[in-house]
Specification:
Strand order of the largest sheet: 6-7-8-3-9-10
Strand content: 15-25%
Radius of gyration: 19 Å
Distance between the termini: 21 Å
Shape: globular
Number of helices: 9
Structural class: alpha/beta
CATH superfamily: P-loop containing nucleotide triphosphate hydrolases
């Protein structure tokens, strides 16, 4: 996936917002008064499978017997070899595709209803910003599509620009920003409608290592502020561990959940110091062992895929 999207416009939801604009005045809590999630889990996947049919009529089993629960406010990383179905599972949660078998709910709703209710934002590997729109206008795009007033759009974009540290770049255009800054704009856009869930498919995969680590710390801070649940696809073991409460390790195709690793890095803010922590290295080693069947070796703090 190489773009960033917000949900398909939902006329049912935008009517009320057109009248009141209440969502824009709410704090960044990841929960909206109009669509409160209560204490329900963010994502529940039960015995889900996905089979694709090729043009020649052959079948390819991408996912098999997937069972996964993501709690409200929880950060879960998905990691596994290329072709194991990580992005396919993400697409099923986002209602961009439908499962062949099993059930899937988002905050107790079908994936389709969650999409219509704008419960989640989506970020992909490339920022996908519109080059003719300013940073502010790119962030405001989903709000504009859903009929929010200009005052509401301006207030929300200002809030998000400050959150992602781009307050001084509101009137710049995408080609005037670095790759990392563009990704921050894309993340801000995915947060525009205060989603309760973020779906992120390798959003930092195209960045250099220094920028990537900086963006990981930024995302950890944003998630702590918004309290949104996150499902995050990555190929990087240290990235998966640094960001997540749990790391879900998937097997080669057909994709199954091979192991779930609880990351015990404490409840405090995720800072770069954690990359040298014994527990961080232990979790990296555990994930790597599940992926490759061998213990991690090498220098601490160095990328260990």
């Amino acid at each position: 996936m190489t773009a960033i999207e917000n949900r398909v416009p939902a006329a049912q939801a935008s009517d009320t917002r057109n009248q009141t604009g209440e969502t824009m005045t709410q704090p960044l809590t990841g929960e909206r008064e109009s669509q409160s999630t209560g204490g329900s889990d963010a994502v529940v996947v039960r015995d889900v499978g996905k089979i694709f049919t090729t043009k020649k009529g052959a079948t390819v089993t991408a996912l098999e017997n997937i069972d996964l629960t993501v709690a409200a406010g929880e950060f879960v990383s998905l990691i596994g070899p290329s072709g194991c179905g990580k992005s396919t599972l993400m697409r099923l949660i986002a209602d961009l595709d439908t499962p062949t078998s099993g059930t899937l709910t988002v905050f107790g709703k079908t994936a389709k209803q969650a999409r219509l209710d704008q419960e989640y934002g989506i970020a992909f590997q490339q920022a996908g910003l519109l080059p003719w729109r300013t940073v502010r206008a790119n962030i405001e795009l989903p709000l504009e599509l859903h009929g929010f007033s200009k005052a509401a759009r301006t207030a929300r974009s200002r809030e998000l620009l400050l959150l992602v540290g781009l307050g001084d770049f509101a009137d710049n255009y995408p080609d005037q920003l670095s790759g990392g800054m563009q990704q921050r704009v894309a993340i801000a856009r995915s947060l525009a409608e205060s989603p309760n869930l973020l779906l992120m498919d390798e959003p930092f995969g195209a960045l250099d290592e220094m920028t990537r680590e900086h963006m990981q710390a930024e995302l950890a801070h944003i998630c702590a502020e918004t309290q949104a649940a996150v499902v995050f696809v990555t190929h990087s073991i240290p990235e998966a561990v640094f960001l997540a409460d749990r790391v879900v390790v998937m097997s080669p195709r057909p994709g199954r959940i091979q192991a779930v690793v609880d990351v015990k890095l404490g409840a405090g803010e995720r800072t770069d110091d954690l990359r040298e922590d014994d527990q961080f290295f232990a979790s990296v080693s555990e994930v790597r062992e599940h992926l490759h069947g061998t213990h991690a070796t090498g220098v601490r703090g160095v990328e260990n895929r």
